[in-house]
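REQUEST FORM: STRUCTURE PREDICTION
Request ID: SP-0412
Submitted by: Lab K.M.
Chain count: 1
Length (residues): 171
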Amino acid sequence: HAPAFDGIERLFSQTRDLRGTLARAGVEALTEVELFEVKRFLLQLVELKAAFAQVAPRFEGITFTDLPDALALLDPGGHRAAGFSIDGAYSEALATARAEKRKLEAQRRQQPEGPERDALLYARRTAVAEEERETLRVRRALSQALAAHVPAMLANIEWIGELDLILQKGK
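STATUS: Completed
RESULT:
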C-alpha cells in the first residue's frame, strides 16, 4: 500500500487550508482565486477518496465525503480541469456583455482618432462595467450556493488533518 500512502501524502502537500475562505462563502462574494482554490480542493478530494479507499480498512472511522454537487457549481461543463474562470456558461448577461465588449474593441481599433473613436471607447467602458457587475453577481451566487456545502467540506478538512497526523506519527 506504499503507493497509496505516497499518493495521499502528495495530495496533502498540495491541499491548502480553506477554512477562512469557507467561513466567508455564505457571507460575501468569494474572489475568482478563492473559487479556483475551492474547486481545486474538491478535485483533490475526489483523488484523495480514491487513494484512501485502498487503505481505508486500516483507519476505522475516517471517511471522506464526495461533494459532486459542489464541484458541479464550479465545473458546470464537468471537464474536471484544474482551472477556473467565470465564463459565459454561468450567465447569458455576462456572455452578452463580453461579446459587446469584444465587438466595440474591434470597432475602436479600426476607427481613426476622433469623436467616433471616443464614443466607442465610452461604450466599451460601459460594457466593461456591465461585465464587472455581472461577474460580481455570479461570484455572489456561486458563493451563496457553496455555503450549503461548507459543513461537509469542513468535515473533510478535519479528516484530512486527522489522517495527516496519524501518517506523520507513523513515520
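NOTES: Residues 62 and 158 are 10 Å apart (CA to CA).
Reviewed by: T.R.
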